[in-house]
Write a structure and sequence with these properties.
alpha+beta; Deoxyribonuclease I, Chain A; 13-stranded mixed beta sheet; 6-stranded mixed beta sheet; 25 helices; 29% helix; 27% strand; transport
């Protein structure tokens, strides 16, 4: 990257990959009012031929630039921040070539940054010559000196190859800037405030410009510690990477010695991850620590120890924020278990510890009190590990088999560690847990050897981690006022980027959306099967191809009780089983008809498995695939019950598929209800997507709901095929009518016999001692206006399990974007506008683009008169939406009048047609009447 300073008007130009970006402050008469609120920077790309001394541009040549850090406003002045010194410190994933490591992902430590003014040339001379005197002036006299000192303190890191803010399991195998922007955890990005406007600007530029821009113009930095060390092993190559991410969620209060805020955020929140990479495996384990999440403050802050603590709110008023804190953690990490390290050396610390336990018990979170010092923990680690043994086993670890391309372990929970005024003790606990988890994993993985050399590197990394975290913490605690001022400058900076040309192009593109998007119907097969721990001994065609003449575009297969779980193992997933089932289904799909299928995604949680298969024609349209799992068995600790979910976009339409196995037993309705709520609450996809945020949701599985009738009556009605009579007593039907579970979900009419429980290998319902009542335990529900269910049935001839496989087919109306047509249209619009503006001055261009006149023929006049979102003139039209409607007020009626609609239909004789879509306002292709005879 190169940097130029323009003189008239004052501008800063960054050049990289043959792409030149000019930053210039806007201060015209129209902007004066706006300037007082949020300063505005005009951004545009310029050709190489303009960057000459004759045009007033001077290159700053004695700096090696490593990327744009962002734009910052300090005391009303604007600056372009660039990274000018780096050191390579990490490479978490790599490949081996000729007995040497070739890095595919690189992490760099920031050593120095510079801030170039968009307002004045006063400091320009300091960048022309590198000297100790100039450096001192940049730190002590430059307005951004405190920020330069902050970002150069050795605790900031960035990567160009992947998302540095997320743990390894959230990384895609192939890096893209779009993926990073969509999925990053902004709580761990310390320059998020400096790059937000740049990200928004990037979303408006053409695809070909993005390819140049994504090199060095967008940098995301985390704070904490990051380092990879190679382990000197004779037979194989291995690396250990240790990452500690300090959260910026509390902004200027990030290192305060106090407790939680109303939004559930706490200071000193750190996520620590250990990553071990070998030729065969990639291993990852995550722990978190932070201040005690209660409302408290400390006094007598002159000394590091002996502080007095005081709870500032009652525990009753604390509980809501406490719950919010742990809900946020659970949505990202899964099950949470608290490790409380507060040593009750005083009455105030004891009250804090007791309050912590009270709130944890009320929330239903396991809490383990450990009051050992760091020395005792190191000398007798078995005492700590004995207390945490169950959590370590149950939570598991992320393990990726590189040779087979599958995850054979998932971490489904996290230890949340708390201490008072100490970095050392949480670091010691995390180091001991990390070592124990690695040794347990090595016992279950062939090829991962925990040698003395390996442990030496492991412990050395943890020592360095402690040094940097303690150093950062101590500096902030010693000078809290000083650092709060620096953080206030960083987190309160506001700048508006103004790019009228790209904004206008984006606006024209929106108006012509119909020319590059179209609705397309795709067909989806969904199947669920409880295997009862058996391997299929018969053909599955009658299940997967209920209509042998049809091949669907997409197949989603959910399996339960894939294998009997063996207790006492930390890595509870058998990769060979998942591979085996993928091979079985792909073999079935690719042996019939002309369509060929691939498996873009599959995942397993214990005995529950979900697989997605897509035809080759539709495969390129599948993007942003994300998965999540949630255990519900034995209070969320075991994976014999739970859910596996996948989220993805088919072009512009979001789909979510889930398979779940809920609590068994006739009387366990409440537990099933609880399982459902747990899954809905905890399944999350980056960036914070929930199940209900999708256009189409299909939820399948063994829901285990039973029929509330006598066994003999059920069997008699089954033999008479009077399924409607049975369905009235179906627990799931009753729960859905009552609004207890699956609100807004639809289920097609059931016209097949109960699918549970059979004597395996027969067509006979259970004849064992328990004589289970036949029931529809296996179900498929759907939600979303884009979906229309076509069939619902079961394969009665597949009899090796005690369940029968169930299937459903759907037609989904997806919105498809023709990316090539969109890119071509964008290019044409850009060319036409640029041609009309070519001979104008900069001020004339801005005036024309803001004027609202039609620059291109054929665009609706109303569409171009509304000003772009980021127009700085302050003349934006007020086109506010009406307030949302409620039960008391309907905006389309006016004056809050209520409306009643009377339907002249006899409800005793007629019913709503179940073949019609639930939403009466969508267009349908059928002539079905609204009401049909009962």
């Amino acid at each position: 990257m190169r940097i130029f300073v323009g003189k008239s008007p004052r501008s800063i130009v960054l050049c990289s990959n043959g792409y030149n970006l000019s930053f210039r402050r806007l201060l015209g008469p129209q902007q004066q009012q706006q300037y007082l609120k949020t300063p505005i920077v005009a951004l545009k790309s310029i050709p190489d031929r303009e960057l000459t001394e004759e045009n007033g541009y001077l290159e700053v040549k004695n700096r090696i630039l490593n990327g744009l850090l962002g734009l910052v406003a300090v005391n009303g002045d604007l600056f372009v921040a660039v990274i000018t010194g780096v050191q390579k410190v990490g490479f978490p994933r790599w490949r081996q070539e000729d007995k040497r490591i070739v890095t595919t992902e690189n992490v760099y430590k920031v050593l120095d940054v510079d801030f170039h003014s968009l307002d004045t040339s006063v400091f320009d001379y300091l960048f022309q010559e590198i000297s100790e005197q100039n450096y001192e002036k940049l730190v002590n006299e430059h307005p951004c000196g405190p920020l330069k000192k902050l970002f150069s303190d050795g605790t900031f890191y960035f990567s160009r190859n992947f998302d540095i803010s997320n743990v390894l399991k959230s990384h895609g195998l192939a890096h893209s800037m779009d993926y990073t922007i969509d999925n990053q955890d902004k709580n761990f990005i310390w320059n998020a405030n400096l790059v937000t406007e740049i990200i928004n600007w990037r979303s408006r530029i053409p695809a070909e410009e993005k390819d140049y821009f994504d090199g060095e113009f967008l940098t995301f930095v985390m704070r904490g510690f990051y380092k990879t060390q190679v382990v000197d092993m004779t037979d194989t190559l291995a690396t250990i990477t240790l990452v500690s991410r300090i959260s910026a969620e509390s902004k200027q209060n990030a290192f305060d010695l106090d407790g939680i805020d109303e939004d559930g955020r706490v200071p000193n929140f750190i996520e620590t991850e250990i990553i071990v990479t070998t030729n065969d495996f990639i291993f990852s384990y995550t722990q978190i620590n932070g201040n005690v999440p209660l409302f408290w403050e400390s006094s007598d802050g002159q000394l590091l120890y002996g502080r007095k603590l005081k709870l500032t709110k009652s525990l009753e008023h604390t509980q809501a924020a406490f719950d919010r804190h742990f809900d946020n953690i659970a949505s990202k990490y899964g099950v949470v278990s608290i490790v409380n390290l507060i040593k009750p050396r005083s009455e105030s610390q004891e009250s804090l510890a007791n309050g912590y336990k009270t709130c944890a018990d009320s929330k239903g979170i396991k809490i383990t009190n450990v009051d050992y010092g760091s020395g005792l923990l190191t000398k007798t680690p078995h005492k700590l590990l004995y207390l945490l043994k169950q959590d370590i086993y149950e939570f598991g670890a992320v393990v990726y088999n590189r040779n087979k391309g599958v995850y054979i372990g998932k971490q489904t929970g996290v230890l949340r560690i708390s201490a008072f005024d100490s970095i050392e003790r949480p670091n010691t606990v995390e180091r001991l847990v990390s070592r124990e988890v690695l040794e347990l994993a090595a016992g279950e993985l062939s090829g991962l050897d925990i040698t003395s050399a390996f442990l030496n590197v492991h412990d050395r990394l943890w020592s360095e981690n402690y040094y940097w975290l303690e150093r950062t913490y101590a500096k902030n605690v010693r000078s809290p006022g000083k650092y709060k001022k620096v953080y206030a400058k960083l987190f309160s900076s506001k700048i508006k980027l103004y790019d009228p040309l790209h904004s206008t192009v984006a606006q024209y593109l929106r108006q012509r959306k119909a020319t590059y998007t179209f609705a397309k119907n795709i067909t989806i097969f969904v199947g669920t099967f409880n295997l009862n721990g058996k391997v299929p001994t018969e053909d599955l065609n009658s299940w997967i191809f209920p209509d042998p003449s049809k091949q669907e575009d997409m197949y989603v297969i959910g399996l339960e009780e894939v294998v009997e779980l063996s207790p006492g193992h930390m890595l509870t997933t058998d990769p060979y089983l998942k591979q085996h089932w993928e091979k079985i289904i792909l073999g079935q799909l690719n042996s019939v008809g002309k369509k060929k299928y691939g498996c873009p995604w599959s995942s397993q949680l214990g005995a529950i498995m979900l697989m997605l298969f897509v035809s080759e024609e539709e495969y390129p349209k599948i993007k942003h695939i994300e998965g999540d799992v949630k255990k519900t068995g034995f209070g969320g600790m075991a994976s014999n019950k739970g859910a596996v979910a996948v989220s993805f976009k088919y072009s512009a339409t979001r789909f979510c598929f889930l398979v779940s196995h809920l609590a068994a037993g006739l009387e366990n309705v409440e537990q099933r209800h609880h399982d459902y709520k747990t899954i809905v609450k905890n399944i999350r996809f980056p960036p914070g997507l929930r199940i209900k945020d999708h256009d189409a949701v299909i939820w399948m599985g063994d829901f285990n709901y039973r029929i509330l009738m006598a066994n003999d009556d059920v069997r008699r009605l089954v033999s008479e095929k009077k399924y409607a009579n049975l369905f009235e007593k179906d627990q799931l039907n009753q729960q859905m009518i009552a609004g207890e579970v699956f609100p807004y979900y639809n289920e097609m009419e059931i016209n097949f016999a109960p699918t549970y429980k059979f004597d395996p290998g027969t067509q006979t319902y259970d004849t064992s001692e328990k004589m289970r009542i036949p029931a529809w335990t296996d179900r498929i529900l759907s939600r979303g206006e884009v979906l229309k269910q076509l069939t619902y049935g079961c394969a009665e001839d597949i009899i090796f399990s005690d369940h029968r496989p169930v299937y459903a087919t759907f037609k989904a109306q997806a919105t498809v974007v023709d990316e090539q047509k969109k890119a071509a249209l964008s290019h044409n619009i850009y060319g036409e506008i640029a041609e009309k503006l070519a001979t104008m001055s900069e001020e004339e261009k801005i005036a024309i683009l803001n004027g609202g006149g039609a620059l291109i023929d054929g665009i609706d006049q109303e569409s171009v008169t509304s000003l772009p979102e980021n127009t700085p003139t302050g003349a934006k039209q007020k086109r506010a939406l009406k307030p949302p409607s409620s039960e008391l007020s309907r905006w389309w009626l006016g004056n809050g009048k209520q409306v009643k609609v009377v339907l002249d239909v006899d409800p005793q004789q007629y019913m709503i047609n179940p073949k019609k879509a639930p939403n009466p306002f969508i267009n349908e292709d059928s002539d079905e009447p609204l009401f049909v005879p009962k």
